[in-house]
């Protein structure tokens, strides 16, 4: 009898322990299930299209704070994203920011009715162009000065070296002629003509590109500055395009050339 009573007492102690263990396991399982559910909900939220979540107006405000390159990448997300990311509302201020401080604005980028996204893209492409065209020469006024290697006689006639103003200017014309300001002592009233020489090798690669004044003067190599202005120079003298970014209708060729 005593042995049986002792066994029953031990069983009474063991059973509550088993129940507590089961309850702990059940609670732990419930916690894990809740965590898993929360994780799934968070994943669904992350996977949700931000355009659908925030709407067009808010996404426009967000995209306005991104750089142009980042905005351009969103054009590829979907048709809906393309519709938002190509908006003139978005690209008009980006064009204005791009053009700020530039010496010349390409004519191809300011065509009436052209989408601002296209205007931005054309501007960037044209700003990298180093092949000068007749339109570039004729549209701009050019500052002219001698390089220091010329005889002192010429340096003494050059306002650039004398530290006086105005500097000497040169003008290119569509008929192939070139002129200077009245009273220019260096110019002397002689006739001048110019030509643009470009030689191309296989696959359209430019091998040689320069501008020549008359046939007796050394040809001028062409370069482009960060502000999109032009420079043409040889060992004797240098031409620099005068900034005219304010000019209505832009400058340069209408059709983009590489």
Automatic annotation (TrEMBL):
<protein>
    <recommendedName>
        <fullName>F-box domain-containing protein</fullName>
    </recommendedName>
</protein>
<dbReference type="InterPro" id="IPR036047">
    <property type="entry name" value="F-box-like_dom_sf"/>
</dbReference>
<feature type="compositionally biased region" description="Basic residues">
    <location>
        <begin position="16"/>
        <end position="29"/>
    </location>
</feature>
<feature type="domain" description="F-box">
    <location>
        <begin position="57"/>
        <end position="94"/>
    </location>
</feature>
<feature type="compositionally biased region" description="Basic and acidic residues">
    <location>
        <begin position="30"/>
        <end position="40"/>
    </location>
</feature>
<dbReference type="Pfam" id="PF12937">
    <property type="entry name" value="F-box-like"/>
</dbReference>
<feature type="region of interest" description="Disordered">
    <location>
        <begin position="1"/>
        <end position="42"/>
    </location>
</feature>
<dbReference type="InterPro" id="IPR001810">
    <property type="entry name" value="F-box_dom"/>
</dbReference>
């Amino acid at each position: 009898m005593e042995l049986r009573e002792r066994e029953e007492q031990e069983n009474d102690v063991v059973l509550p322990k088993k129940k507590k263990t089961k309850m702990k396991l059940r609670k732990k399982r419930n916690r894990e299930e809740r965590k898993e559910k929360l994780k799934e909900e968070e994943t669904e939220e992350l996977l949700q299209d931000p355009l659908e979540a925030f709407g067009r107006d808010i996404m426009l405000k967000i995209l306005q704070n991104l750089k142009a390159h980042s905005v351009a990448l969103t054009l590829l997300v979907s048709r809906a994203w393309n519709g938002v990311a190509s908006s003139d509302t978005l690209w008009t201020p980006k064009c204005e920011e791009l053009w700020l401080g530039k010496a010349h604005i390409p004519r191809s980028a300011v065509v009436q009715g052209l989408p601002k996204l296209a205007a931005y893209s054309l501007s960037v492409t044209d700003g990298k162009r180093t092949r000068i065209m007749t339109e570039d020469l004729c549209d701009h006024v050019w500052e002219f000065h001698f390089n220091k290697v010329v005889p002192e006689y010429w340096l003494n006639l050059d306002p650039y070296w004398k530290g006086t103003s105005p500097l000497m200017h040169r003008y290119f014309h569509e008929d192939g002629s070139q002129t200077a300001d009245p009273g220019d002592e260096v110019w002397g009233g002689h006739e001048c003509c110019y030509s643009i020489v470009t030689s191309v090798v296989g696959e359209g690669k430019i091998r040689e590109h320069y501008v020549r004044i008359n046939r007796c003067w050394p040809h001028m190599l062409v370069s482009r500055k960060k502000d999109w202005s032009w420079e043409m120079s040889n060992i004797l003298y240098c031409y620099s395009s005068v900034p005219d970014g304010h000019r209505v209708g832009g400058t340069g060729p209408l059709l983009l050339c590489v």
